[in-house]
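Collaboration report, partner site 2.

Our partner group contributed sequences for two proteins of shared interest, and the home lab folded both. The records are reproduced in the order in which they were received, starting with the first partner submission.
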Amino acid sequence: MAIPNANITIDAGSPGPDRVPSFLEPLWYAIYTNANHEKRVAQQLGQRSIEHLLPLYDSVRRWKDRRVRLQMPLFPGYVFVRFAFRDRLQVLQIPSVARFVSFGGHPAPVPEGDIQSIQNCLNRDSNVEPYPYLQAGRRARVGSGPLQGLEGIILRRKNRTRLILSFDLIMRSVAVEIDDGDLVPAR
């Protein structure tokens, strides 16, 4: 059976040298992992040379006879991956990867600003820890310092000020210790 020659056109405009179709452009995505397999997935991504981000924080756990310092995932069950969408099978074939964070059946890219916020918090020598996801509260913006421009919710606990950063796509939040003088009211 012969198939006639068909011309396929995409109604997104012609991809010129300055325009790359979204399936070819590397974007950040969040992937769900099996429970407690985040580090194993990150290791597999590294072995396959796939850019990824697994934010970790230090946690001191008290066991029966001793205290242990552990590196725990900041977002349990999630790993962030940067790749062109056409290469998604390389990620999905990794053992312990469950699926992409999706909306309407399509993987949703994580905003670049959210990834930069996470990296800025981790690169700064501050206490970062998971926090329950928040939407409402007194909002503030960091006016100076390495986290300048980030917006979050102010929390005071144990005579320390923390800024709660919420990431809507994965419905998770983190608390970052910050100096009161660096905060200004959000607009």
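Second partner submission, folded after the first:
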Amino acid sequence: MKECPKCEVVNPDTAERCDCGYDFVLDPMRSTDSAAKRAIRTVLKGVAGVTGVIWFLAPITRYPGPLVFVVSTVVLLACFVGLSLLDHAADMGWWPKKRDPKA
């Protein structure tokens, strides 16, 4: 089974295209590092979710409200930037592609 790096849908090994339109034949090396990307993406989404709840509740707290609001805003922005960069990491050359041993 191989996972689509674009939509994370698991496809059979014989699939040439994903339902989202991703072509495994034209770019077979991109699907090899999706497990690590999925783990990083899950952590960033979890941090963003917890921080979002804190950001939402910060204005109603008494003393550290403004400070918590500002810090959580910075953390949320960092998570969104990280998720955005993760989607384009292979295009920027930051995420090394694994070579196919048959090539």
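Feedback sent to the partner group on the second submission included the following. Residues 2-92 form one domain. Residues 46 and 71 are 17 Å apart (CA to CA).
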